[in-house]
Amino acid sequence: MLAFAIYLSFAGAFVLALLPKGQPALSRWLALAVAVAGLALAVQGFAAGMGQGRVTIVDLPWVPSMGIHFLLAADGISRVLVLLTGLAAVAGVLFSWNIEVRTNEFFAFFLALIGGVYGVFLSFDLFLLFVFYEIAIVPKYFLIAIWGSTRREYAAMKLALYSFAGSAMVLIGLLAAYATAGSHSTTLDALAHANLPVSFQMWCFPLVFTGFAILAGMWPFHTWAPTGHVAAPTAASMLLAGVVMKLGAYGCLRVGMALFPRGLDPWGFSLIGIGSWRDVFALLAVIGIVYGALVALAQTDFKFVIGYSSVSHMGFVLLGLMTLNQIGMTGAVMQMFSHGIIAGLLFAIVGRIVYERTHTRQLAELETMRLSRRLPFAATAFVIAGYASMGGPLFSGFWAEVQVLIGAWQAKPWWVAAAGVGIVIGVAYTWRAMQKAFFSDALPHAEHDHEAAGAPLHAMAAITWPEVTGVSLLVAASLVVGLWPRILLDTIEPAVKALLAGGAQ
Amino acid sequence: LEQPGMSGFHILTLLTVLPLIGAAVALAAGKHARAVALITTLAALALALVVWTELPANGSIGLVEQYAWAPSLGIEYHLGVDALGALMLLLSAIVTLMSVDAAHRVHHQPGLYFALVLTLEAGLFGSFTALNFFHWFLYWELSLIPAFFLIKLWGGARRGPAATQFFIYTMAGSVALLVSFLGLFFATGSPLFSYAKSMDFGYLTQLASTGVLEASVKAHLGPTAMIWLAIGVLAGFAVKVPMFPFHTWLPAAYAEAPSPVTMLLTGAMSKMGVYGLLRIALPLFGSQISQMRTPLLVLAVATVVMGAWAAAAQKDLKRIFAYSSVNHLGYCLLAIFALAVPAAQTLNNPAAQASQAFALNGVILQMFNHGLTAATLFWFVAMMQQRTGGHRGIDQFGGLRKPAPVLAGLMGIALFSSLGLPGLNGFPGEFLIFRGVFSLAWVAAAISILGLLVTAAVLLTVIQKVFLGPVPEHCANFPDLHHGERLALAPVFGLMLIVGVVPSLIVSTVNPTVQNLLAHWRF
User: Does the model's pTM come out above 0.90?
Assistant: First the structure.
């Protein structure tokens, strides 16, 4: 059934692309219907899959002479991320309700991206996974280049080129693995059991891992992320931060670590405490956590704060993966889900709810607008989202980060110390942004601008139903997981266990 | 090795003669020449499809027609195709049809124009079916002459020098080819061998694969002669493909030729060079090529990377696509030279043999896909020129997706196909090539990946400058594709999608031929 989430999204994209112009309402409702159907399938798949291991959905020979299969399957990790995608898709459509320019094209690209993402999470054939991964690049580019804002052409090009560079590295690794394995199958299982030589894994692992990690925003290859997030229209930022960055992290885990587990072995020598690729990537993850948080602290544009916070939070995912233990990796997958929801929520508040009414994202200007009184809904939502983003208990982020930290402690205690600094700074930048944007009493510079001085008296447009629905959906998702983490843990843990047993040490 | 065709029905001869008859009628038809050309090319496409379905299943050469012509000179009338030849026939037929379709504004001597286009098609068909050097060479040259006049008479402002440069370069290549073959002829023309066969590709391949050819050339022409003959043949094809540093004629010719003619040049004629490498150079000079493999790989990688970088430096759409064609055919060269590994390394090594097969499948698929995509891109340039009175600089356009969303969308798809996006036709060929080359010459493959990235940047820049951003004043009323154009483009895009999603449609027919070719090559 889950496979229909892919087919439906692409079919929806196709129909929307052919829809005549000047039918924005129809386009919106159609897109919403497709997204909701996808979510329903994802929920159904998630519920049906509880307590089950990996389930094959479709397995057809595609290019028999090369052993390429059209193989869709789902294990616990896939099901959680498919659920995330379903939620992000519905919320994304709701927060794009105000798109008036070429509405049908916008939603066509949007659904094509969603379809590609579903495809990546459900592919268990390396070639098929790569195909979906590449297909997802194209709609991202157009969503930013056409409907974006700040320096959109630059941002779209940068994003596309970083993505292509990453996928070129993945392609090299893929071909090399396929050739070295000498197998006549490109399924992940066949390649994982091909007994690739250790020396080969030693160079192929960092190549493939880095290729995917570029999309996960790993420092120092993260620079596409803040510019891309900021330039993208709200729904696209939500998807970029919420789901597309997860594609990268998912690839790191599902392809990089599962196919080349010996690539994580110690080199046999160590340089300033770094003795394996595992140490290298853990170090980069920790730098990303601290660096992203510090840069977020210094931003003057509200959206850039959220953009850099994503770099910091994705650092936790990568760190969790590098712990190589059950609890840390479970935390990493949980963090993928949690960050997907929370980052989506933050971008929705900043890029849509607030920006649509104030037409500025500069913290210095927002300071003068007393938004906590004039937009109480937005302020409340941001307080909740900010709290969740800091990793506060009761929300999903808490469990995810706690697990990553415990796992990291078991692996290397100093990682925890560094990541802890990142969490503290995370509290600081969230607090700062919240204070400035919503709760400041600063006065407008009346002597410079009389218009601005009088402006705050006007009432702002009322909050619309799609906004309320979208915020409620995302808050509820994060809250449910925060209150009852087992709902995800029971699904993720067996899958991580199987992965650890099957490969990654 | 070869199988006769349907009894008494000379379909390959018919296929070659058909465009020539069409050309004669078109010449007389004057204003109605385009209709004649359309009917002729449609009929040719139908025949080419019949040829494709009539191929022998085991990958050998089928539909053979063989008659003595001038036996004392080793000249025979000898035709036949395997999947490689048949796929090229299909491609030529499709591209010529597209080109005729695109050329609906020929005011100056339309009769002559379409007669030349059809003659060119006959040349293409002939050179992809001929199995005797003399006969093949005749068509190789025959196709050159109409191409020259099409550039010279209907080209852009600097058409004169471009046509001359094109002609002289290709001619020089042809002379090198001819000299090499005369050398072979003299060497094999001893009483030991059959004169009547001494220009036959199949016979020469047999001699080469047993080592007799090399021994005989050494005995007659000296110990180093064989390598010089190989260089001569390679040079002839390298100009045609083209390979760095013999590519300099190409940008000028592609840019100055009218766009429908450029479609023919890049879509079909450039494949004659790659085809020649596969049908002639590798079978006869396999061991010489494997001796020169490293320098040849360097040139192929240079073709890939420099083609992409040069495209990045251009402002003219036609020059961008011209250099991007150099880049795309560079992948074919890369795979061809990579698979020429010395026999000792592939003996009892099934993994290496499989890689050779992947690479060769990739080359053949890439020839077809590049032809289709590049011709489509130049078709779009032709449409854009028609709509703006000849503009084709990327800075002269902007925001075209607003006035012309369908054109922008379809050309976008073609650009992404050229970029090698999975799901479209550009991807499977390049994937197979890289799969093969990676295990045969991984350094070359890794450096060539750079070419992929730069190509991506170039094509995205085209999308950005032409389709996005503000609309300049003269583009405000840029008309979108009308129904006729949409109808004409629909099958092309259908084909792109089908080949992209189900490449096995072509690969399953090509693969037996690939195995058959590899079995007869000796490196």
Answer: no
